[in-house]
Design goal:
The protein is α/β, with parallel strands linked by helices. The chain contains nine helices and five strands. Helix 4 crosses helix 5 and helix 4 packs across helix 6.
Length: 254
């Protein structure tokens, strides 16, 4: 994976071509999408193709749809949405004798969902003996409920969202999954092992992958101390108005 630092206009020029940009979170994808639209307007255009700017989970959704259309084995399973996933965990707890000893077993559903996602993303060995040790009842309880959850998913043909990564990685390595020619990644502090496995498979398959950084904007910083929140708000609004009038095209961060 190569590193590249681009000006924002250079990045937008890439997006106008055959380039997919995957962001570390939904907010960054939304902000870049808005700025891209503003850039196209500045170019004098009135219409354009939606840029391929997607958050990681949105990009996985697109890959999963491609896997289904390509007939990849396992991609015909239903992937539950968030409410459906919580419901599956609640059913797992509701039908379990150990969970009935808890005051409110349903309140554990979201935590179990998040814990399992972390375990799968970081490729922890769920069959390791450490999960079974009774000296730590929390580990043992999670392992027990996770097995029950996976059994429920198998019976009803559900596939937990985090389990898609392993299937997609295998599909890329087998050559059965359509893939982009060039992929950019922005806003990631680190890549967890399941992410890295998929990206390595794409790179081995010939996809050009770049870790993109944006050149910092040139500008000044002003810091002041106010007497209270009312004065702070007053000073801030006057400061913003001053610079928006002095330099109408400037960007102001508060």
């Amino acid at each position: 994976m190569t590193d590249s630092t681009l000006e924002i206009t250079a990045l937008f020029s890439e997006l106008a071509g055959n380039f997919t940009l995957v962001t570390g979170n939904s907010r960054l994808a939304r902000v870049l999408g808005i700025q891209y639209g503003q850039w196209r307007v500045q170019q004098g255009e009135s219409q354009w193709q939606t840029p391929n700017i997607l958050p990681w989970e949105g990009w996985l959704d697109r890959l999963w749809q491609s896997a289904g259309l390509a007939g990849i084995e396992g991609a015909d399973q239903a992937v539950p949405g968030n409410h459906q996933l919580i419901s599956l965990w609640e059913r797992t707890l509701r039908d379990d004798a150990r969970a009935r000893q808890l005051l409110s077993p349903e309140s554990l559903a979201a935590r179990l969902r998040d814990t399992r996602k972390l375990c799968i993303d970081w490729q922890l060995d769920m069959n390791h003996p450490a999960w079974q040790g009774e000296e730590n009842e929390n580990h043992a309880a999670f392992s027990h409920w996770n097995r029950a959850f996976e059994a429920l998913c198998r019976r009803e043909q559900w596939l937990a969202p985090e389990d898609r990564l392993a299937l997609l990685t295998a599909a890329v390595r087998s050559g059965g999954l359509p893939r982009p020619a060039k992929l950019g990644l922005i806003g990631f502090d680190e890549y967890y092992p399941a992410q890295k496995a998929l990206l390595d498979a794409l790179q081995d398959a010939g996809v050009e992958i770049e870790h993109v950084s944006l050149q910092p904007a040139n500008g000044g910083v002003t810091l002041w101390q106010s007497q209270d929140s009312r004065y702070e708000l007053h000073d801030m609004t006057r400061w913003v108005r001053h610079w928006s009038e002095q330099e109408p095209g400037t960007s102001i961060a508060v």
